[in-house]
Structure formats: C-alpha cells, structure tokens
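Researcher: Sit down with what I've pasted below and flag anything odd:
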Amino acid sequence: MKLQHYIGGIEGLEPSSFEKKVFVQPWEERIFGIHVAMMGLSNHLEAVESVPTKFSSFWTWGHLRQGAEGMNPFDYFKYRYYEKWLGGISGFFVESGYVTEEELSTKTAAYLGNLDAPLPSGGETAIDEQIIEYLRVGDSPACDVEAQPKFKVGDTVTVRNPPPVDHCKLPGYLRTKKGIVDEVYEGTYNYYFPTGDGVGDPMPIYNVVFDSHDIWKDITEPNTKIYVQIFEGYLEDPE
C-alpha cells in the first residue's frame, strides 16, 4: 500500500491548502484542457472513429490517476495538484511516441525564453465538436454484463487488503475494516482498465456504511457514520 492511498486520518500532515481559485497559474487551465481533449478523443470511444485526430491512445481519468498515484510518495506530496497532471501527461506523450524528450525540452526552453510567444492556433471543427459532445454525455462505467451480487443489504462485509498497485480505487483507511451493506446498486460496473488489485471486470457496486470509531477511534465525533461506494472486488465475507 502506498502512502498516497492512505491519507485519511493520518496525523501530523501539513495543513491542507484552502486555495479557492480553480486554476492558480494560466498553464494549469491549459493542462486541464489537454486532459479533457485526451479523454474526449480516447480510442475506446466509438464516436472517435470518424474524427480526424492523430491521438490514437486509450486515456481516461483512471490513466491520469494512475500516473499520479504511481509516483514515489515523496514526489507525490511535494508537487502541487496540476504539477502531477503535467508530469503524468507529459510522460505519457513521451512514452507513447507522440513527442521525444528532446523535442519537449526544446519547446519548453523556447517558451521560457519568450513568455509572450504566441501559442499554437488552428484546429479541427470535428475534433472540437467531439470533445464538447463527450463533456455533454460523459462515459458511463455501467455495462450490460449480468452478475448476481455476492452481498445483500444488511450483510456485514470486510474490506480486503489487496496488494499495492500504481492506481487503487479503494481508500486506504478502509482496508481490513468491517462495514454493513447499505445499498446494492442496480446493474454492474467495470473500470477503465484492470488495476491489478481486483477491479476492472464488470461487477456490482455497493454503498457500505462504517462506524467512524472503527476507522479513526476516538478522534471522531460519536455516532458518526461513513458511507463509501465500493466495488465488489474489494469486499469479502467477514472471518
């Protein structure tokens, strides 16, 4: 388990940032836009087949999170939010062959040497329309595969303690904790890709309620409940 998967309830961390601006620096807005464009043009979307884009990769929120969570914990907590995005996306483009490190370094040096240099312009109307449509309709994880839920409302369940992986959909503070199934969501849901710790294939999702004292002991208020949506792959019968 990586520290960045387990920050809930940890004492001694530096105070959280309460910055109210969505984007602090202009480049943060641009890297957000690049990420949105990558999602809207991801090759797993059928609508992209007719769009004249040179982007031919699989990219989702999961891939973005995988890049951030896969960092060394010291680096993860050292960099700011969009700095992690910038590093992960830049690394992805280099590893995927869209640009070389030398080309990226040269272009970076050129802009740092002339901060007023105009940014690239132009674009394809069809690409813009596809990205806007993606923002409108989204990309639902619901799927048509039928699966009988292993648990029912009222069942006591134990959260598994899966092996550490680059990207995890399970809050670290819930590992090995017992909870009660509050709701079984209709249908099955997959994840964008197998994470290596039990999530990826179509499966039910549950709303599980936990007693906060079972998680954080007496540092929480009495009679406080924690509700968490959890993939079935992270749950097991209590011992």
